[in-house]
Write a structure and sequence with these properties.
- The chain is an alpha+beta fold.
- The chain folds into three domains: 284 residues, no CATH class; 113 residues, no CATH class; 58 residues, Arc Repressor Mutant, subunit A, CATH 1.10.10.
- Helices cover 40% and strands 20% of the residues.
- The protein is built from 15 helices and 16 strands.
- It has a nine-stranded mixed sheet.
- A hairpin with a 2-residue loop joins β6 and β7.
- The N and C termini lie far apart (80 Å).
- It holds the Pfam family GatB_N.
- GO terms for molecular function: asparaginyl-tRNA synthase (glutamine-hydrolyzing) activity; ATP binding; glutaminyl-tRNA synthase (glutamine-hydrolyzing) activity; transferase activity.
- It catalyses: L-glutamyl-tRNA(Gln) + L-glutamine + ATP + H2O = L-glutaminyl-tRNA(Gln) + L-glutamate + ADP + phosphate + H(+); L-aspartyl-tRNA(Asn) + L-glutamine + ATP + H2O = L-asparaginyl-tRNA(Asn) + L-glutamate + ADP + phosphate + 2 H(+).
- Belongs to the GatB/GatE family. GatB subfamily.
Length: 477
């Protein structure tokens, strides 16, 4: 009988914080920008330059810690992690080893209806390194220091996950908490959320952990899932062949679906950590911590319960809307502007989800104003446009954030409410289709649909459907 193996997984998740400036200087943290334009003597590691801590970084880190049930270290400090690499300008990274800001937390995940707690060992603050750009034509490597000094938190889990599904559920939960806090946009494709996967396998029933490897270069949830499956199979094959798994850092190539070794895994002593001499310790008073706590938002679980009670929305709608902070903000803004909850929910669940899928966009890419959606809903309710026209108007709002009133006027889309003009068109259609009149009188329901369709076509979709039905019934009966 073949042996049964289980995977043991822990994650190190790096999250770029949403501050406007870097952790130890006043340079911009904006994504993009020409290489080396968001830099100064501090973030390029010039001798004699001194770091000054950005207070907002501490507040974001503590807020994430509170939201993930951590104990906040009210006396914490920074340490130097020494390593020599071209994208690391000072030849050390300012991080936290001995007294990280958050410790001993946990988040609850739900996989296939089964709840589980994933423990968080610690969350610490640190600065990001620069970025190496490899030029294949010359074989040279260029360094861009724009990212150097961008504030990060590193969330280190305990090895509590056992499958790719649990890992994705954990990452999604973290992403949602952090987005709700506004602490980061957590865009994996832009590198503002990155996960390193520590993975080992062991025989089912054994207590002892196997030898773990760390996998880097994972910038999407699907790549993370593939990397876990691939590394699990690689380690099991080695063990089955009587070989040993080597503790090392591996790089995942998502195109080839294969990982290859980068370097042997260092331990803390290899980095020669010592307390950062240029930064004073951070003292978080009870008052400051209470202030951070008082600013914590309503998180997803609380929102779901409130939406059900307050608006009576279906559970499916609630789950979709609360899954993304952008959709939640859009929904709540529309309601504040006077739109009915179910009506807004219908537009989100229908046309917004459809257009996001068609255009391969994330919800966070939505840029139209809630006011224009509400204005369009009010135009439907007042009879200024019908629902068919509204779909066309909404596409223009979605793409270009147009004012629906102006767009309807300029494109001649206003509903025709002139009863006399409408009656004239309908009389002509009825006179030209005697066979359908006979069908209608013989009780064939399809005939009515035919007349409505012909009228809407003649009116270029701009007639009020209720008025069309009413006039048709009068004439036919």
């Amino acid at each position: 009988m073949s042996k049964q193996y289980e995977t043991v997984i822990g994650l190190e998740v790096h999250v770029e914080l949403a501050t406007k400036t870097k952790i130890f200087c006043g340079c911009s943290t904006a994504f993009g920008g020409a290489p080396n334009t968001h830099t100064c003597p501090v973030c390029t590691g010039m001798p004699g330059s001194l770091p000054v801590l950005n207070k907002q970084v501490v507040e974001y880190a503590a807020a994430v810690g509170l939201a993930t049930n951590c104990t906040i270290t009210q006396y914490c400090k920074f340490d130097r992690k020494n390593y020599f690499y071209p994208d690391n300008p000072q030849n050390y990274q300012i991080s936290q080893l001995y007294l990280p800001i958050c410790r001993n937390g946990q988040v609850e995940i739900n996989v296939d209806g089964r709840k589980k707690n994933v423990r968080i060992h610690e969350i610490h603050m640190e600065e990001d390194a620069g970025k190496l750009v490899h030029d294949p034509s010359t074989g040279n490597s260029l360094v861009d220091f724009n990212r150097s000094g961008v504030p990060l938190i590193e969330i280190v889990s305990e090895p509590d996950m056992r499958s790719a599904e649990e890992v994705i559920a954990y990452l999604e939960k973290l992403r949602m908490i952090i987005q709700y806090l506004g602490a980061s946009d957590c865009k994996l494709q832009e590198g503002s959320m990155r996960a390193d996967v520590n993975l080992s396998v062991r025989e089912v029933g054994t207590e002892e952990f196997g030898t773990r490897t760390e996998m880097k270069n994972l910038n999407s949830f699907s790549a993370i899932a593939r990397a876990i499956e691939g590394e699990m199979e690689r380690q099991i094959d080695l063990i089955e062949d009587g070989k040993k798994v080597v503790q090392e850092t591996r790089r995942w190539d998502d195109d080839k679906e294969y990982s290859y070794p980068m370097r042997s895994k260092e331990d803390a002593q290899d980095y020669r950590y010592f307390p950062e001499p240029d930064l004073a310790p951070i003292v978080i008073s009870d008052e400051w911590l209470d202030e951070i706590r008082s600013r914590q938002p309503e998180f997803r679980d609380e929102k779901q319960a409130r939406y059900k009670e307050q608006f009576g929305l279906p559970e499916y709608d609630i789950n979709i809307i609360t899954e993304d902070k952008t959709l939640t903000d859009l929904f709540e803004s529309c309601i504040e502007l006077g739109a009915a909850a179910k009506e807004v929910s219908n537009w989100i669940m229908g046309d917004i989800m459809r257009l996001l899928k068609e255009k391969e966009m994330e919800a966070s890419d939505i840029h139209f104003s809630p006011a224009n959606l509400v204005k369009m809903i009010q135009m439907i309710e007042s009879g200024a446009i019908n629902r068919k026209v509204a779909k066309k108007v909404f596409e223009a709002i979605f793409d270009e954030d147009v004012d629906p009133e102006v767009y309807v006027e300029e494109n001649g889309l206003k509903t025709v409410n002139d009863e006399g003009a409408l009656r004239k068109v309908i009389e002509e259609i009825v006179a030209n289709n005697p066979k359908s009149v006979e069908d209608y009188k013989a009780g064939k329901k399809k005939a009515m649909g035919f007349f409505v369709g012909q009228t809407m076509r003649a009116m270029k979709g701009k007639a009020d459907p209720a008025m069309v039905n009413q006039i048709l019934k009068e004439i036919l009966d």
